[in-house]
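Re: that chain you flagged

S.,

Sorry for the slow reply, it's been a week of failed gels. I finally had a moment to sit down with the sequence you sent. For the record, here it is as I used it:
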Amino acid sequence: MRCTQCGCERSNVIDSRSSPDGIRRRRVCAECDSRFTTYERIEETAPLIVKKDGRRESFDHNKLRAGFIRACEKRPVSIETIDRAVADIEARCLEMDKKEIPSMLIGELVMSALREIDQVAYVRFASVYREFSDVSQFMDTLQGLLEKEQVELK
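Prediction finished late last night. Pasting the structure tokens below so you have them in one place:
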């Protein structure tokens, strides 16, 4: 931090406090003993989501959670299970360390999580997400679930 009086880059922190904007630090210059205040804030690193039509919007934890809750409505799935799945997907998106993530990737992560949590919720979500236009697409998804289940039983 540069001193506001002499421009020296050496200073000592004499007090730190949390504030609504981040962290407030009182500093004293090592050269002229001038005191000044600096503010630090955590930089948001959440990626932008690139939608199918090219629009970009901020990653929204609540929107992701609402999608899970809608898919699992009237199913025996606890909120704790949903929150764990949402946290896992959010962590995976942050681990990618990319500025933009296609919404299709998040949709696939949601479908993968729902397939493990509840197959009915998975089919509900898949039917909306993949925009089934006829019964054959719906049946293909169900057939995929049945085949996966039979492989797991062997």
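What I noticed first: The mean pLDDT is 86.

Talk soon,
D.
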